[in-house]
Amino acid sequence: MTTDFKHHQAAHCENGVASNLLKHNGLNISEPMVFGIGSGLFFVYLPFLKVNHAPAISYRPLPGSIFGKVAKRLGIKIKRQKFSGSAAAEKALQDNLNNNIPSGLQVGVYNLTYFPDDYRFHFNAHNLVVYGKEGDNYLVSDPVMETVTTLTTQELDRVRFAKGAFAPKGQMYYPIHIPKELDFKKAITTAIKATCRDMLAPVPIVGVRGMRFVARHIRKWPLKHGVRKANHYLAQIVRMQEEIGTGGGGFRFIYAAFLQEASVILENPQLKELSFEMTGIGDLWRDFAVEAARVYKKRSNKPDVYNMLADMLIEIADKEEAFFKKLKKAI
User: Fold this and answer.
1) Which of 270, 211, 259 is nearest to 32 (CA)?
2) What is the pLDDT of residues 193-241, one digit of tens each?
3) How far is Cα 285 from Cα 293, in angstroms, rounded to an integer?
4) For the ranges 51-65, 203-217, 251-265, which has the lowest average pLDDT?
């Protein structure tokens, strides 16, 4: 049992699942356009919440938010379901497959058998598509993988009902209605305004202010917690930035691509100019990740490395603040 579903590799799981499901249903929308209209660019630092024994940090909004905002802003209807047990979840998925409906699933990463060991840790906000079943193997299109793969019934059940923060509870979702006429201009304008509002929010843990908050903490970590724990915290930042999705530089590159597409649709050349500026900011995020990785892997010979990293993050925050103020005016 299989559906004629075309797998397209993407930089980030939720963007990729949304784009692939919409393409399957006749709407040719790119990953950057999904990411931009879904206001996927975000930053929040939650030092009072621990994930993997380190302060929680996220470069994206809550799981499901991106696809949800895309649907709302374009008038698309999505059906979402959560389940109290495995039997009901498996039956609902099987019913969809019997009706040739590829389905998006939220899953935990730790038990994804096709992921390399280094990428398998307790993170429950990953997304993939199941588009068929052959014997006991579900056919899986995971957009961050180059090719399609499979999971057994038992393996899929384990990741659908992973425990912990953001437990997926078997969540399944798929589009059920796409309007014939879509107002991309209005959706793009609304989305850009929302992203600017989020990144410039007058809240100490969100957006550019959140970045500065992290920088202040990085300076204190070695003395407050010791080098070993400070390095573990740095590893958490880099993992959430570069390995789970593409939160730092990668998200900036995707957003730059979105702005280039948006500049054509809105006939606004200033957005194209700003896309180049965002690409440059993405490069700075990548540089930060490289330097942080050298520190926690004990390969850095630079003096006063924690203050150096904090300074790098302050520079990024300053550039992003200036960028989003310009973007707000441009739109």
Assistant:
1) 259
2) 999 999 999 999 999 999 999 999 999 999 999 999 999 999 989 888 8
3) 12
4) 51-65
Count Cβ atoms below 10 Å from residue 181 Cβ, excluding itself: 5
User: Residue for token digits 């698309």?
Assistant: 76
